[in-house]
Amino acid sequence: MVETQHLLSRVRPPRVQITYDVEIGDAIEMKELPFVMGVLSDLSGDRDPETPLASVKERKFAEIDRDNFNTIMSKMNPRVAFQVKNTLSGKDGDMMNLELKFNKIDDFNPIEVIKQVPQMAELYKTRTMLRDLLTKLDGNDTLDNLLTQVLETPADQNKIKTALKLDQSSGEDAQPKSKK
Hints:
Layout: E1 18-24, E2 27-33, H1 69-76, E3 79-85, E4 95-101, H2 110-116, H3 118-137, H4 141-152, H5 154-169
């Protein structure tokens, strides 16, 4: 039996195509072997100690494609836990413990990562509110003049700071109080 590997030139051939020649009587017939690839790997990152992985014997192969990628990823429950220098607190040498979980491919988006870190999520929320305020100021001269006047007057600035501190200490969001 003569075994050889042939490359077929079709319009769009598969990336890997393995064939071999089989002698049947006096004729030589070409048989194609299916290409199956299996990858054994722990792609879950830093495992949660409370949920250990099953033994290798108990694990099953999973066919992954673009339609079931998020489902397979959520079953793997990948996570990463690490410490970083806390530059948000302003204190030197202060470290922050982070744990990021990725249950779908969109969780790798920077905004989704920000939402998983409470300090960064709060800053992002503030940034979004400031951007919304800037949008409302665009073309609204009355509101623009009012805010400029408030920010230029030290007495008004102190009133705002006091109101914000009171709202934050009482556990409420810092919302302006409506006039009745």
